[in-house]
Design a protein that fits this description.
Blueprint (H helix, E strand, L loop, with lengths): L2 H31 L4 H9 L3 H30 L5 H17 L3 H13 L4 H26 L5 H6 L2 H19 L3 H9 L2 H4 L4 H18 L6
């Protein structure tokens, strides 16, 4: 095939991906707002100070860029090369869009988008998504812990579980971060048990070994990002 024809085919495929992504975003937005009163929403929008809207958009954009950069750091053990900041940003934003219509579905989408755009094994990318979310959870708990002294006593009386719940959540997060790097060895040992090993065909067993190794590669970012 002529190189120019190949390049044109790739360009056409890229445009189709953009169009499909745009149509998917429109469908998800319709799913989210189909039961809302659009006139009421437009009325509220007219009362909003545009300065605050612009500031919110800027802060949100910076936040997404920082998240994309953090994910690149987590992906270093998997990629062993430079990962595109744009691909990371695009995958994260795509996940947020899907979350509007399918709660938690965005995590799967961002994993697939990043794996395909950077040609990375999805079992290796998956642990970085888990670790990324656990870091978010840990940061959220730390922020809440810093805010606890400023919470009115009446709130503490009515919601006595706030402090204990935050401590429990932090413990679970730390334990999860600690156990994730040893998940692959545990899976390997479990697969080698006679009751399991004897029922797995050799071809599937080798495939599972590859998937476990790729998963283990992705967890290394928690030890040496």
């Amino acid at each position: 095939m002529n190189p120019n024809d190949t390049e044109s085919l790739r360009t056409g495929t890229s445009w189709w991906k953009v169009v499909l992504a745009f149509l998917l975003a429109l469908a998800l937005l319709w799913l989210v707002f189909k039961d809302c009163d659009l006139n009421a929403i437009l009325g509220y929008l007219k009362t909003i100070d545009p300065v605050y809207v612009v500031c919110t958009l800027i802060v949100g954009l910076i936040s997404h860029i920082l998240r994309a950069w953090r994910w690149i750091i987590l992906l270093k053990p998997v990629a062993n090369r430079s990962v595109s900041l744009w691909n990371s940003f695009y995958a994260i934003v795509s996940g947020y869009v899907v979350n509007l219509g399918i709660p938690r579905g965005g995590e799967v989408v961002r994993l697939v988008v990043m794996a395909r755009s950077e040609k990375l094994p999805w079992p290796g990318v998956a642990p970085t998504v888990f670790i990324d979310r656990l870091l978010d959870l840990a940061l959220l708990v730390l922020i809440f812990a810093a805010a606890v002294p400023f919470i009115p006593s009446k709130v503490h009386e009515q919601m006595s579980w706030l402090t204990s719940g935050s401590i429990a959540l932090m413990v679970v997060t730390v334990v999860a971060l600690a156990l994730l790097p040893v998940a692959a060895p545990i899976m390997t040992r479990a697969k080698s048990l006679p009751m399991i090993k004897g029922h797995i065909p050799e071809g599937i067993s080798h495939k599972l070994d590859d998937l476990i190794e790729q998963f283990h590669q992705g967890t290394r970012c928690s030890n040496d990002p």
